[in-house]
Design goal:
single chain; alpha+beta; Immunoglobulin-like; C8orf32 fold; 8-stranded mixed β-sheet; 28 helices; elongated; Papain-like_cys_pep_sf; TPR-like_helical_dom_sf; Tetratricopeptide (TPR) repeat protein
């Protein structure tokens, strides 16, 4: 190792400076130009000479800002000391016409060993020459010229190099990449980039290849394209003749004869493996587990370790090693077991681009073992985690790999397929036996396998109990939705390399009312798959899609249905076994004895999908998802208001919900969400008193705007207008800008007989203007139309429609004010008709028109509109109440009483609402 600082570039006579740009007189002028780039010069030159690679760099960087000045004040130059030297040619500061030698007076770089990759379990052995450059000012140009030499004995005299090339939009004052060689050292070279025209030129006894950088902006590529399309621009050089040349050059490094000495500890481990019962496959799996579980990963890249693996005995003694060390250890064990095995070089990130690259060892960053048992290839990676017998047939997505053989070998493609076992295996037992609209009670279990399990297991040791529970809850929230948990747990099993999460909790109902029947999804994983490759640009039409690396997920749901499943049916495709969009999809659905049983499995296969197949694959996935199964409830559904609160509370599902909430609250009494969630449940089943008690407790723990507004509404519903107004004011105090809080306070002021105060509050908001102005004007019209002068309300609506005729919802507001307050009925029908025509299916317009029919005494027409509304929205209590009133007017009193009873069950204040309009049963 040498670190020197000669004053002249003549120390490396074969390099030529960049014409003009190196001229010292030109540098100050360039620095003074308007808006110059930060990097003035990037001159990178390489020379292949007698099995050695010289790299020369000339870099001039402008300190254009205080931030850039900070970066330039300290320089660092890394190099591998076991491969060659670092030579400093010049370090200077250019300030106007002045050139300041930063190496004057014997100043030197300090050599450090800085292992920056330790957190990633890497020891590189790289040394760093560092210097604090003194006296640099904003506007200065710092120029550094240096060379490194490199010769790797493991390459058998070969030279190789891979350089990432800068490309636009990066700006440079001047940039060049230059390669020199003579005929005896002639390397092969390749530019993996677009828009570069570079041709070798003979100059005396040397050949020169040179091209400017930055390159032109490289073509944009879709993110899901294979890496041979998306890799950064690269410049490669190599003296290897072929991939077979690379293979046989690496072969001596992985010779295993005599590496396990008789009587050594490692020989004892081999003897144990030989003594195991079972097939060669069983023993290979045991050997893999031994290497994975008992030798921790640590990348060692020092003292020739970039390509030279650590010996197995040393690895076993140290109990750590990188991919090379683990591969050599596993290889020795497998061959000791009489199993055919060989190392294979792989690229962990650019594997599918390897066939397009120059043959070099630098094309690979990983090595693993290929074992052949009964004619089948097994890809065994000692750096993996948690592999077991069931998994050793899984295929990594490394694209093309290179077998390492004494005779040499060509590239070999790994054909990926679905993994043998799911990495994540989720089972959910759910109780929805009481009613569709009650919360779902569930027991969930998730088993994680392999590398994910090992990583989680390692992380668990760094978590306290609270954080562990939050991790489990977060996982299941993705599976069952937002939930309250009464119990969660984690167990680990090193023997099977699994981590198991368990949870008991309650979550919101997934049932939805559509076309007068309850429906819920019976599919999960398959519906979540997205496959939407973008190939709209003409240049992308022929680019294939790289699908996800192999990973499998299984989901099993066992659900107890309401009413013992009577009248429930499954709609959609119950059985599925297809390969679509790079996924193997499997599903079975069964409904028997009131229990729905769903099992799904999705496996990403890691395959590449050709461009001409993309439309068909997208269509196939869309078809599969369109045919996903759903559970459909009985043709005549029941509703919670059909039952008394006492009856609902006695159902097993309700009791289980209560018990779960109680345990969840007891587990964390400082968490307000347990109380607020239970309050929602209790309110929904009609237990208003206890629902309010829970809200009181939630607000006591964590008062916030939403909780105050929620309690305000519920207090109002139970007749406590004073309490509702107080809560609204508290919400507004917490967030004065909250429109919901302003609306709540104004409404309850009006309910308290203080309409002028309410209007004054809203007028103040209208005066502020802005985007909320129209909403506040509409709200003012609502207040006046409900509690005050309907004529003034109509004036406001008229003015809004004149200003913004596109606000079509105003027709419904005007229709409702006229009908509910029984004014201007002669023009009301025009408003109501327009509202219905422009409503796009909204039931509000029909409800408003029904009020007008009622005022006009046309009860049959009113009932016709209300029938439509109630059929579509059975829980719309104002429409049910008016339907009851209309039925009374038609002489169908018993039917009317039933409707009014339902409306009162949903809204205890419904009579007071309509009494304000003079409407009573």
């Amino acid at each position: 190792m040498t670190v020197v600082a000669p004053a002249l570039a003549g120390e490396v006579p074969l390099y030529q400076p960049a014409p003009g740009w190196i001229d010292k007189a030109a540098m100050p002028r360039l620095a003074a130009d308007g808006d110059p780039p930060s990097m003035m010069i990037l001159d990178s030159q390489q020379r292949v000479e007698k099995g050695r690679l010289w790299n020369y760099a000339d870099i001039a960087t402008r300190a254009g800002s205080a931030e850039a000045l900070t970066q330039l004040s300290s320089l660092t130059l890394p190099w591998a000391p076991d491969k060659g030297d670092l030579i400093i040619h010049e370090l200077s500061i250019l300030r106007g016409d002045q050139v300041i030698d930063a190496l004057a007076s014997g100043k030197k770089f300090t050599v450090l060993r800085r292992e920056q990759g330790l957190e990633a379990l890497q020891i590189s052995g790289i040394l760093t020459a560092t210097m604090a450059v003194e006296g640099v000012q904003v506007g200065d140009v710092v120029r550094l010229r240096y060379s490194t030499t490199s010769k790797d004995d493991a390459l058998g005299g070969h030279v190789q190099n891979v350089s990432a090339l800068p490309a636009a939009p990066l700006r440079l004052g001047y940039g060049r990449v230059r390669l020199l060689w003579d005929d005896t050292d002639a390397p092969r070279w390749k530019l993996l980039a677009s828009g570069v025209d570079a041709k070798p030129v003979k100059k005396g006894g040397l050949t020169e290849l040179s091209f400017a950088v930055p390159l032109a902006k490289q073509p944009e590529m879709p993110a899901d394209a294979p890496t041979r399309f998306t890799h950064p621009p690269l410049f490669e050089l190599s003296t290897f003749a072929s991939w077979a040349d690379v293979s046989k050059t690496m072969a001596p490094l992985y010779a295993t004869d005599g590496l396990i000495a008789d009587g050594s500890p490692l020989a004892g481990e081999l003897a144990k493996l030989k003594a195991l019962p079972g097939s060669p496959k069983d023993k290979a799996a045991a050997a893999l587990q031994l290497v994975q579980d008992h030798v921790r990963y640590l990348m060692v890249g020092m003292n020739g370790g970039n390509y030279v693996p650590q010996k197995p005995a040393e690895t076993w003694t140290l109990r750590y090693g990188d991919c090379k060390a683990k591969t050599l250890l596993l290889l020795s064990l497998l061959r000791g077991l009489g199993i055919e095995a060989e190392p294979v070089l792989a690229s962990s990130t650019l594997g599918d681009s390897v066939p397009e690259r120059l043959p070099t060892a630098a094309a690979f960053d990983h090595v693993l073992v290929r074992a052949v048992i009964d004619g089948q290839s097994y890809w065994l990676d000692g750096t993996g985690l948690g592999s077991r017998l069931e998994d050793i047939g899984d295929t990594p997505r490394f694209g093309s790999v290179l077998p390492v053989r004494t005779a040499g070998a060509d590239l070999m493609a790994i054909r990926t397929h679905a993994n043998a076992r799911p990495t994540i295996d989720v089972s959910v037992e759910a109780d929805e036996s009481g009613h569709e609209k009650l919360p779902t009670v569930f027991d969930a279990k998730a088993v994680m396998r392999g590398q994910i399990a090992t990583m989680i297991s390692t992380g668990l040791g760094q978590m306290d109990a609270k954080r562990r529970d939050e991790m489990v809850q977060g996982f299941f929230s993705e599976q069952v939705g937002t939930a309250q948990y009464s119990q969660v747990g984690v167990t680990t099993d090193a023997a099977s390399a699994t981590v198991t999460f368990t949870a008991h909790g309650v979550t919101g109902s997934p049932w939805k009312l559509s076309d007068r029947r309850y429906r819920r999804d019976a599919s999960k994983l398959i519906d979540e798959i997205s496959f939407a490759p973008d190939r709209a640009r003409p240049a992308w039409l022929a680019i294939p899609v790289a699908t996800s690396a192999p990973i499998g997920i299984r989901y099993h749901l066992r659900l107890r249905l309401p009413q013992g499943g009577k009248g429930y049916v499954i709609e959609g495709e119950q059985g599925l076994s297809k390969t679509v969009a790079g996924y193997d999809l499997r599903r079975t659905v069964q409904l028997k004895d009131g229990v729905l049983d769903v099992e799904e499995r999705t496996d990403a296969t890691g395959v590449e999908i050709a461009a001409d197949r993309l439309p068909d694959e997208r269509d196939a996935l869309a078809t599969v998802q369109a045919m996903s199964p759903h559970v459909i409830g009985p043709a005549k559904p029941t509703y919670l208001w059909d039952y008394s609160p006492a009856t609902i509370a006695a159902w097993p599902q309700s009791r289980a919900v209560e018990a779960t909430f109680a345990k969840a609250i007891a587990a964390d009494a400082e968490d307000a969400t347990g109380y607020s969630s239970r309050s929602n449940f209790r309110w929904g089943i009609g237990d208003y008193k206890n629902a309010l008690v829970d809200l009181d407790k939630a607000i006591g723990i964590k008062p916030d705007v939403d909780l105050y507004l929620q309690r305000a509404y519920r207090r109002f519903q139970t007749g406590d207008v004073t309490g509702a107004l107080a809560d609204g004011r508290m919400a507004r105090q917490l967030d004065p800008a909250s429109g919901a809080a302003v609306g709540t306070v104004a409404t309850y002021l009006a309910e308290s007989g203080k309409l002028d105060d309410a209007i004054g509050m809203v007028d103040a908001k209208i005066a502020i203007g802005g985007e909320a102005r129209d909403s506040y004007r509409s709200f003012k019209a609502t207040l006046l139309g409900t509690y005050g002068d309907p004529g003034k309300a109509i004036e406001i609506i008229d003015a809004q429609l004149a200003e913004k005729p596109g606000m079509t919802g105003l027709f419904n507001e005007r229709c409702w004010v006229k009908g509910s307050r029984n004014v201007e009925l002669d023009s009301a029908m025009q408003d109501c008709t327009k509202a219905v025509e422009l409503s796009s299916g909204s039931m509000a317009a029909l409800d408003s028109r029904a009020m007008l029919w009622f005022r006009m005494g046309r009860f049959d027409d009113a009932l016709r509109d209300l029938d439509v509304v109630v059929a579509q929205e059975p829980g719309k209590e104002p429409s049910r109440y008016m339907r009851g009133i209309v039925l009374h007017r038609l002489g169908r009193g018993s039917e009317g009483d039933a409707e009014i009873a339902i409306a009162r069950r949903i809204d205890p204040r419904i009579d007071a609402v309509y009494a304000r309009y003079g409407i009573k049963p």
